Amino acid sequence: MAVTRYQIISLRVQHAGEILKFQHKIPAYLTCCTGFKLSMVGVMPPALMNTTLGRLSASFNSLKEEAITASLKHEVLAAKDFQQLEVQLHPGQIVSGVYVDEQLSEAFKPYRVNLYLRCTDKEGQTTKTKAACTTT
Amino acid sequence: MKNHKFQQIRVRVSDFGESVRINAQTDKQYARIRGVYVSLPDDLLLSGALLGLRVNNQEVFEDAHEVKLITSGHQVAPNKKFFFFEEHLEAGGSAIEGKFTDGGEEAFANNEAKLQLMQARKVQSGYLYEVKIYLWLTNEPS
Fold first, then answer.
1. Which of these, A79, A74, A35, lies nearest to A58 by C-alpha position?
2. Which residues contact B120 (CB under 8 A, 6 or more apart)?
3. Interchain contact B56–A (C-beta under 8 A)
4. Would you tell me which residues 78-117 of chain B have a C-beta closer than 8 angstroms to some C-beta of chain A?
5. In the structure, what pLDDT confidence band is assigned to residue A134 with cuts at 50, 70 and 90?
6. By the number of CB atoms within 10 A of the CB, which of A6, B37, B57, B74 ranks highest?
């Protein structure tokens, strides 16, 4: 039976310009990641509306595949859709990456960044994503 | 026989930052859970609100899953509001367990007046607000 699971990598940004490294192990039964989403948790001053808060990059399969480079914007009507990803996972390997805060403003307030990875098991690929994952 | 039902699970949040356990059971007359929609009484409450969900002891959302990713605002048409599950989730009397976590007072950091209104409401009624979780149950095949 198809299985879709959301892996959440949560990072806490405490200072302006902070660089945070992360490593996350995806359960071995998940074999394909089909989407990702970056999300900011917290309340930002209105002055930072529509500005880029930071950038994130992530590599899969123990640094063999750099699949995500994305920026995090503070927007009122931010899209809730996941961006497409086509990564075949090697069992037991890790996702690692770095988040760099890019705020120069003195109005900095600590916040949290969540990276959501939408992953499926082998048979769990939907018709939309099956082709994408099997061709990589 | 009806093919669709929108089952409501109500969660009462008593204080800022509180985590509330959810325990429910899906209607036995429906085969699967097609989607979910979480309704909060104020958009500001979305900030930092989390919802974990398990169906028959299988994790669908981790406890740290943000509510804002599985809900939608007034700008979305009523028949487009639900988050659809890509996989088959059994209904038919399934056990629903979960945890709703409020985002805390920080959610109102830019709106002091609303924070005071919420606090006054808490004093009057004994709780802050009620979350409504709607499960879309159906008998149609996935």
1. A35
2. none
3. no
4. 85-88, 106-107, 109-110
5. low
6. A6
Q: Which CATH number fits domain A12-129: 1.10.287, 2.40.128, 2.30.30, 2.60.120?
A: 2.60.120
Asked whether residue B140 is domain-assigned, the answer is no
B88-107 pLDDT, tens digit each: 999 999 999 999 999 998 88
Domain count, chain B: 1
What are the respective helix, strand and coil percentages of chain B, to the nearest 5? 20, 45, 35
Report pLDDT digits (tens) over B36-90.
999 999 988 998 999 999 999 999 999 999 999 999 888 888 888 999 998 899 9
Please give the model's pTM, rounded to 2 decimal places: 0.86
pLDDT at residue A9 greater than cutoff 60: yes
Q: Containing H/E element for B7?
A: strand B4-13
